[in-house]
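Are you able to produce any protein sequence you like plus the matching backbone structure tokens because I've never seen that pairing?
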Amino acid sequence: MALYPVKPANRSRLDPESLEAVAREAFGNAERSEQGVRARFGALRNLSARAIAKQLEVEVDMDPKVDAAVAAETVRRYNRFLESATGYTSKERAKRMRKSVAGAED
């Protein structure tokens, strides 16, 4: 499970209905659950995402036995989903995660 910060302008996209639309756009399928959204694609056996305060909680179950092309496309779509939902690019998310880890160690 991972928690991702969400830009203030994107927080309106954290309701289950909006998350479903974002996941459907990225993965081609999605279904709303009680608290968020679930989707599958390629190496993603299951992705579940939901809003927790001002963050996006994402839990994934990956299939490590897929071929490299499927794995690469899965990563591209996963990053597209996270960027649409959070408003941060993969580089910005990595930088924020490093800062939060460094701050937790102090």
In short: The CA atoms of residues 29 and 78 lie 13 Å apart. The chain has a mean pLDDT of 91. The longest strand covers residues 44-52.
